[in-house]
Amino acid sequence: MQLLTSPTSPYCRKVEVLLRESGLDSHVTETNASGTPLEPNATTTAANPIGKIPVLIRDDGPALYDSRVICRYLDSLAGGVYYPEKRLWEVLTLEATADGILDAALLMAYEWRLRPEEIRFEPWVDGQWDKIARALDVIEARWISHLEGRLGMGHIAVGAALGYLDFRHDARGWRTGRPLLTDWFTRFSERPSMQDTVPAL
User: Fold this and answer.
1) Quick check: 72 and 64 in contact, CB under 8 A?
2) Nearest of 74, 20, 31 to residue 196 by alpha carbon
3) Domain GST N-terminal spans what residues (predicted)?
4) Domains, in order of start, for the chain
5) What is the mean pLDDT of residues 171-177?
6) Which of 42, 55, 97, 185 is most deeply packed, by most CB within 10 A?
7) Could you tell me which of 73, 109, 112, 100 has the C-alpha nearest to residue 161?
8) Global pTM value
């Protein structure tokens, strides 16, 4: 299989971490297919009409896209370990919360990376950060016990989200007032799968 990916995409990082944790990375070739909404990658748009990565090109079926779809597929190959039936709804909700953080963080990054300075709208950017802050507060207050449990897709999604905040929005200081989440992420970042997928320009 082939994974169309990018060294800076947190959605791709989710998939890459799962590949390494599950041992499926030896079955997948990772291909850089970076692009932006203004300059989409032709290889990506040929496999995914939306033009977004990650995309998993399979040998025996149509390409899969959207990180959650790909991760569910990979989990099915790994035996259902990362979306355990017993805690499925909790895992899916935590993953959705982490992906919501990524959605807002990516919109913030696009605002200053792609939009001309004279038409940037700071209140809109701050509104995106408010979403992120609320989500982080909920994880700190309600989800630490889950994160301290057996590794699942929720852990990987939160790890990718926090890593992206460090990468693109470090000045916002997401750790302030969130000691439990800070401690968890420090330990989670030491996993070889996270070390091997640190975003790079």
Assistant:
1) no
2) 20
3) 1-82
4) 2-77 (3.40.30.10), 85-191 (1.20.1050.10)
5) 97
6) 55
7) 100
8) 0.94
